[in-house]
Design goal:
- With 316 residues, the protein is α+β, with helices and mostly antiparallel strands.
- It has three domains: 127 residues, no CATH class; 68 residues; 67 residues, no CATH class.
- 41% of the residues lie in helices and 19% in strands.
- It contains nine helices and eight strands.
- The strands form two sheets. Strands 1-2-3-4 form a four-stranded antiparallel sheet.
Length: 316
Protein backbone atom coordinates (compact mmCIF):
# COMPACT_ATOMS: atom_id res chain seq x y z
CA UNK A 1 0.00 0.00 0.00
CA UNK A 2 1.02 3.64 -0.25
CA UNK A 3 2.93 5.52 2.52
CA UNK A 4 -0.20 7.45 3.54
CA UNK A 5 -2.02 4.19 4.24
CA UNK A 6 0.88 2.78 6.27
CA UNK A 7 1.13 6.02 8.28
CA UNK A 8 -2.61 6.06 8.97
CA UNK A 9 -2.52 2.43 10.11
CA UNK A 10 0.39 3.17 12.48
CA UNK A 11 -1.42 6.20 13.89
CA UNK A 12 -4.66 4.23 14.24
CA UNK A 13 -2.88 1.45 16.10
CA UNK A 14 -1.66 4.12 18.50
CA UNK A 15 -5.20 5.42 18.83
CA UNK A 16 -6.40 2.08 20.17
CA UNK A 17 -4.52 2.83 23.37
CA UNK A 18 -1.22 1.18 22.48
CA UNK A 19 0.54 4.54 22.19
CA UNK A 20 -0.06 5.18 25.90
CA UNK A 21 1.86 2.11 26.99
CA UNK A 22 5.24 3.83 26.86
CA UNK A 23 6.94 7.08 26.02
CA UNK A 24 7.39 7.55 22.26
CA UNK A 25 4.71 4.91 21.69
CA UNK A 26 2.84 6.84 18.99
CA UNK A 27 5.98 7.81 17.10
CA UNK A 28 7.31 4.25 17.28
CA UNK A 29 4.13 2.81 15.75
CA UNK A 30 4.11 5.30 12.88
CA UNK A 31 7.81 4.83 12.09
CA UNK A 32 7.55 1.04 12.40
CA UNK A 33 4.55 0.96 10.04
CA UNK A 34 6.73 2.59 7.35
CA UNK A 35 10.14 1.12 8.21
CA UNK A 36 10.29 -1.75 5.66
CA UNK A 37 10.02 0.85 2.91
CA UNK A 38 13.65 1.88 3.46
CA UNK A 39 14.20 -0.06 0.23
CA UNK A 40 12.43 2.80 -1.62
CA UNK A 41 15.92 4.31 -1.96
CA UNK A 42 16.24 1.93 -4.95
CA UNK A 43 14.08 4.34 -6.94
CA UNK A 44 17.11 6.64 -7.07
CA UNK A 45 19.22 3.93 -8.73
CA UNK A 46 19.65 3.76 -12.49
CA UNK A 47 17.85 1.25 -14.66
CA UNK A 48 15.40 -1.34 -13.40
CA UNK A 49 17.01 -1.88 -9.99
CA UNK A 50 13.83 -0.94 -8.11
CA UNK A 51 11.96 -3.88 -9.63
CA UNK A 52 14.53 -6.31 -8.21
CA UNK A 53 14.91 -4.60 -4.81
CA UNK A 54 11.49 -3.29 -3.77
CA UNK A 55 9.44 -5.44 -1.38
CA UNK A 56 12.33 -7.81 -1.04
CA UNK A 57 14.94 -8.11 1.72
CA UNK A 58 13.46 -5.41 3.96
CA UNK A 59 10.02 -7.03 3.68
CA UNK A 60 11.10 -10.64 4.19
CA UNK A 61 10.58 -12.59 7.42
CA UNK A 62 14.23 -12.20 8.65
CA UNK A 63 13.94 -8.41 8.36
CA UNK A 64 10.60 -8.49 10.16
CA UNK A 65 12.44 -10.02 13.11
CA UNK A 66 15.47 -7.71 13.00
CA UNK A 67 13.84 -4.35 12.24
CA UNK A 68 11.67 -4.19 15.42
CA UNK A 69 14.72 -4.88 17.58
CA UNK A 70 16.74 -2.18 15.82
CA UNK A 71 13.93 0.39 16.05
CA UNK A 72 13.21 -0.36 19.72
CA UNK A 73 16.92 -0.03 20.55
CA UNK A 74 17.20 3.29 18.70
CA UNK A 75 14.12 4.76 20.39
CA UNK A 76 15.33 3.55 23.79
CA UNK A 77 18.67 5.23 23.10
CA UNK A 78 16.93 8.49 22.21
CA UNK A 79 14.88 8.27 25.40
CA UNK A 80 18.04 7.90 27.46
CA UNK A 81 19.67 10.86 25.73
CA UNK A 82 16.54 12.94 26.37
CA UNK A 83 15.10 11.59 29.62
CA UNK A 84 11.72 12.70 30.93
CA UNK A 85 10.84 12.61 34.62
CA UNK A 86 7.15 12.47 33.74
CA UNK A 87 7.23 9.33 31.60
CA UNK A 88 9.57 6.40 31.13
CA UNK A 89 10.38 4.57 27.90
CA UNK A 90 9.93 0.82 28.27
CA UNK A 91 12.11 -1.25 25.93
CA UNK A 92 9.72 -4.19 26.25
CA UNK A 93 6.75 -2.13 25.12
CA UNK A 94 8.77 -0.35 22.44
CA UNK A 95 9.83 -3.73 21.05
CA UNK A 96 6.23 -4.97 21.00
CA UNK A 97 4.94 -1.79 19.33
CA UNK A 98 7.78 -1.92 16.80
CA UNK A 99 6.90 -5.50 15.94
CA UNK A 100 3.20 -4.69 15.52
CA UNK A 101 3.95 -1.72 13.29
CA UNK A 102 6.60 -3.46 11.19
CA UNK A 103 4.48 -6.57 10.62
CA UNK A 104 1.49 -4.46 9.57
CA UNK A 105 3.51 -3.17 6.62
CA UNK A 106 4.09 -6.33 4.54
CA UNK A 107 0.66 -7.62 5.52
CA UNK A 108 -0.84 -4.60 3.76
CA UNK A 109 1.62 -4.73 0.85
CA UNK A 110 0.64 -8.34 0.17
CA UNK A 111 -2.89 -7.15 -0.62
CA UNK A 112 -1.83 -5.55 -3.94
CA UNK A 113 -1.21 -7.00 -7.40
CA UNK A 114 2.39 -5.71 -7.17
CA UNK A 115 3.22 -8.55 -4.80
CA UNK A 116 5.33 -9.26 -1.71
CA UNK A 117 8.36 -11.47 -1.13
CA UNK A 118 7.98 -12.96 2.34
CA UNK A 119 10.86 -15.42 1.90
CA UNK A 120 13.60 -12.98 0.93
CA UNK A 121 16.57 -13.25 1.00
CA UNK A 122 16.24 -17.04 0.90
CA UNK A 123 13.83 -17.30 -2.04
CA UNK A 124 12.86 -14.73 -4.66
CA UNK A 125 9.22 -15.83 -4.71
CA UNK A 126 6.38 -13.35 -5.10
CA UNK A 127 3.06 -13.66 -3.26
CA UNK A 128 -0.07 -11.77 -4.40
CA UNK A 129 -3.23 -10.93 -2.48
CA UNK A 130 -4.96 -9.13 -5.41
CA UNK A 131 -7.36 -7.61 -2.88
CA UNK A 132 -6.89 -3.81 -2.81
CA UNK A 133 -5.55 -1.23 -5.22
CA UNK A 134 -2.33 0.28 -3.91
CA UNK A 135 -4.11 3.60 -3.14
CA UNK A 136 -7.61 3.00 -1.80
CA UNK A 137 -9.83 5.96 -0.92
CA UNK A 138 -12.08 3.86 1.31
CA UNK A 139 -9.08 2.87 3.43
CA UNK A 140 -7.96 6.48 3.73
CA UNK A 141 -11.47 7.75 4.57
CA UNK A 142 -12.09 5.05 7.17
CA UNK A 143 -8.81 5.59 9.03
CA UNK A 144 -8.88 9.39 8.82
CA UNK A 145 -12.44 9.45 10.18
CA UNK A 146 -11.38 7.25 13.08
CA UNK A 147 -8.39 9.44 13.90
CA UNK A 148 -10.39 12.68 13.70
CA UNK A 149 -13.07 11.21 15.97
CA UNK A 150 -10.37 9.99 18.36
CA UNK A 151 -8.91 13.48 18.54
CA UNK A 152 -12.34 15.02 19.16
CA UNK A 153 -13.04 12.55 22.00
CA UNK A 154 -9.52 12.55 23.42
CA UNK A 155 -10.63 13.89 26.83
CA UNK A 156 -13.42 11.35 27.29
CA UNK A 157 -12.47 7.99 28.88
CA UNK A 158 -13.62 5.11 26.68
CA UNK A 159 -13.10 1.36 26.79
CA UNK A 160 -10.58 0.24 24.15
CA UNK A 161 -13.25 -1.47 22.06
CA UNK A 162 -15.29 1.74 21.89
CA UNK A 163 -12.44 3.95 20.77
CA UNK A 164 -12.91 5.39 17.25
CA UNK A 165 -9.49 4.21 16.06
CA UNK A 166 -10.29 0.66 17.15
CA UNK A 167 -13.63 0.79 15.34
CA UNK A 168 -11.93 2.17 12.21
CA UNK A 169 -9.39 -0.66 12.21
CA UNK A 170 -12.18 -3.21 12.66
CA UNK A 171 -14.02 -1.69 9.69
CA UNK A 172 -10.79 -1.79 7.70
CA UNK A 173 -10.35 -5.51 8.39
CA UNK A 174 -13.97 -6.09 7.34
CA UNK A 175 -13.43 -4.09 4.15
CA UNK A 176 -10.27 -6.05 3.32
CA UNK A 177 -12.06 -9.35 3.91
CA UNK A 178 -14.96 -8.28 1.69
CA UNK A 179 -12.61 -7.29 -1.13
CA UNK A 180 -10.70 -10.54 -0.80
CA UNK A 181 -13.95 -12.41 -1.37
CA UNK A 182 -14.92 -10.13 -4.29
CA UNK A 183 -11.64 -10.95 -6.01
CA UNK A 184 -12.31 -14.68 -5.65
CA UNK A 185 -15.84 -14.27 -6.98
CA UNK A 186 -14.46 -12.28 -9.93
CA UNK A 187 -11.95 -15.02 -10.71
CA UNK A 188 -14.69 -17.67 -10.69
CA UNK A 189 -16.93 -15.50 -12.87
CA UNK A 190 -14.11 -14.92 -15.35
CA UNK A 191 -13.17 -18.61 -15.44
CA UNK A 192 -16.77 -19.59 -16.13
CA UNK A 193 -16.80 -17.24 -19.11
CA UNK A 194 -13.74 -18.90 -20.70
CA UNK A 195 -15.19 -22.40 -20.96
CA UNK A 196 -14.38 -24.61 -22.80
CA UNK A 197 -10.98 -22.89 -23.31
CA UNK A 198 -9.71 -22.10 -19.80
CA UNK A 199 -6.52 -20.04 -19.47
CA UNK A 200 -3.26 -21.24 -18.00
CA UNK A 201 -3.46 -18.52 -15.35
CA UNK A 202 -5.55 -15.49 -14.58
CA UNK A 203 -5.48 -12.46 -12.31
CA UNK A 204 -8.36 -10.35 -11.01
CA UNK A 205 -6.97 -6.90 -10.32
CA UNK A 206 -8.62 -4.23 -8.13
CA UNK A 207 -8.88 -0.83 -9.79
CA UNK A 208 -8.64 2.74 -8.43
CA UNK A 209 -11.78 4.42 -7.07
CA UNK A 210 -14.15 1.49 -7.75
CA UNK A 211 -14.05 -1.42 -5.25
CA UNK A 212 -16.87 -3.14 -7.17
CA UNK A 213 -14.84 -3.85 -10.30
CA UNK A 214 -11.98 -6.17 -11.20
CA UNK A 215 -9.82 -6.10 -14.32
CA UNK A 216 -8.97 -9.60 -15.55
CA UNK A 217 -5.79 -10.83 -17.25
CA UNK A 218 -5.92 -14.29 -18.84
CA UNK A 219 -2.72 -16.05 -19.86
CA UNK A 220 -2.73 -18.40 -22.86
CA UNK A 221 0.14 -20.05 -24.71
CA UNK A 222 1.03 -17.13 -26.96
CA UNK A 223 -1.03 -14.21 -25.67
CA UNK A 224 -2.81 -12.45 -22.85
CA UNK A 225 -6.49 -11.59 -23.07
CA UNK A 226 -8.32 -9.03 -20.98
CA UNK A 227 -11.72 -8.69 -19.38
CA UNK A 228 -13.69 -6.92 -16.68
CA UNK A 229 -15.94 -8.18 -13.90
CA UNK A 230 -18.47 -5.72 -12.49
CA UNK A 231 -20.51 -6.33 -9.35
CA UNK A 232 -23.34 -3.88 -9.97
CA UNK A 233 -26.08 -4.98 -9.80
CA UNK A 234 -24.82 -8.60 -10.00
CA UNK A 235 -21.43 -10.09 -10.94
CA UNK A 236 -21.03 -10.11 -14.71
CA UNK A 237 -18.05 -10.64 -16.99
CA UNK A 238 -17.28 -8.43 -20.00
CA UNK A 239 -14.64 -9.20 -22.60
CA UNK A 240 -12.21 -6.43 -23.52
CA UNK A 241 -11.10 -6.33 -27.16
CA UNK A 242 -7.37 -5.97 -26.51
CA UNK A 243 -5.18 -9.02 -27.04
CA UNK A 244 -1.52 -8.81 -26.03
CA UNK A 245 0.89 -11.05 -27.93
CA UNK A 246 3.63 -12.47 -25.73
CA UNK A 247 6.18 -12.21 -28.52
CA UNK A 248 8.85 -14.74 -29.36
CA UNK A 249 10.26 -16.35 -26.19
CA UNK A 250 13.73 -15.85 -27.69
CA UNK A 251 13.43 -12.13 -27.04
CA UNK A 252 12.81 -12.68 -23.33
CA UNK A 253 15.93 -14.84 -23.27
CA UNK A 254 17.82 -11.99 -24.89
CA UNK A 255 16.41 -9.61 -22.31
CA UNK A 256 17.94 -11.73 -19.55
CA UNK A 257 21.37 -11.01 -21.03
CA UNK A 258 20.89 -7.37 -19.98
CA UNK A 259 21.06 -6.45 -16.29
CA UNK A 260 17.93 -4.30 -16.58
CA UNK A 261 16.13 -7.15 -18.30
CA UNK A 262 17.12 -9.59 -15.57
CA UNK A 263 15.94 -7.24 -12.86
CA UNK A 264 12.65 -6.50 -14.57
CA UNK A 265 11.86 -10.13 -15.34
CA UNK A 266 12.61 -11.13 -11.74
CA UNK A 267 9.55 -9.00 -10.88
CA UNK A 268 7.28 -9.42 -13.92
CA UNK A 269 4.21 -11.59 -13.46
CA UNK A 270 2.80 -11.55 -17.02
CA UNK A 271 5.79 -10.56 -19.19
CA UNK A 272 5.75 -9.96 -22.93
CA UNK A 273 8.10 -8.39 -25.46
CA UNK A 274 7.79 -5.92 -28.33
CA UNK A 275 10.62 -5.41 -30.84
CA UNK A 276 11.11 -1.98 -32.37
CA UNK A 277 13.51 -1.13 -35.20
CA UNK A 278 15.09 2.33 -34.96
CA UNK A 279 17.78 4.20 -36.89
CA UNK A 280 20.33 3.26 -34.24
CA UNK A 281 19.42 -0.43 -34.15
CA UNK A 282 16.98 -2.76 -32.44
CA UNK A 283 15.10 -1.78 -29.30
CA UNK A 284 13.47 -4.47 -27.19
CA UNK A 285 10.61 -3.47 -24.91
CA UNK A 286 9.72 -5.86 -22.12
CA UNK A 287 6.44 -5.10 -20.32
CA UNK A 288 4.06 -6.63 -17.80
CA UNK A 289 0.44 -7.15 -18.82
CA UNK A 290 -0.67 -6.31 -15.27
CA UNK A 291 0.05 -2.65 -15.85
CA UNK A 292 0.78 -2.09 -19.55
CA UNK A 293 -2.01 -3.37 -21.79
CA UNK A 294 -1.39 -1.45 -25.02
CA UNK A 295 2.16 -1.73 -26.44
CA UNK A 296 1.51 1.02 -28.98
CA UNK A 297 1.13 3.72 -26.34
CA UNK A 298 3.91 5.84 -24.92
CA UNK A 299 3.12 4.72 -21.39
CA UNK A 300 5.28 1.67 -22.11
CA UNK A 301 8.12 4.05 -21.34
CA UNK A 302 6.92 4.40 -17.74
CA UNK A 303 6.16 2.01 -14.92
CA UNK A 304 5.65 -1.62 -15.85
CA UNK A 305 8.04 -1.73 -18.81
CA UNK A 306 11.75 -1.53 -19.54
CA UNK A 307 13.59 -0.46 -22.70
CA UNK A 308 16.63 -2.43 -23.81
CA UNK A 309 18.92 -1.54 -26.68
CA UNK A 310 20.21 -4.49 -28.71
CA UNK A 311 23.39 -4.74 -30.74
CA UNK A 312 23.26 -7.35 -33.50
CA UNK A 313 20.20 -8.86 -31.85
CA UNK A 314 21.88 -9.13 -28.44
CA UNK A 315 21.40 -6.95 -25.35
CA UNK A 316 24.05 -4.38 -24.54
Amino acid sequence: MDPVCHTLVGASLGGTGLARKTRFGAATLVVAANLPDVDAVSYFFDGAAAYAIRRGVTHGIPALVVLPVVLAAVVTGIARIRPSPAREASFRWLLLLSAIGVWSHPSLDWLNTYGMRWLMPFANRWFYGDTLFIIDWVVWLTLITGLVAAWALRRRPLEWFRRPATIALALLVTYIGSNFMLTRVAMNEALAATRPFPPQRLMASPVPFDPLRREIVFEYDNEYRLGTVRFTPLPRFETRPAIIAKGDAVWLDRAREHVDGQQFLSWARFPYSVVEQTDSGTVLWVADARYVADPTQQRMRGFGAVRLELADGRAR
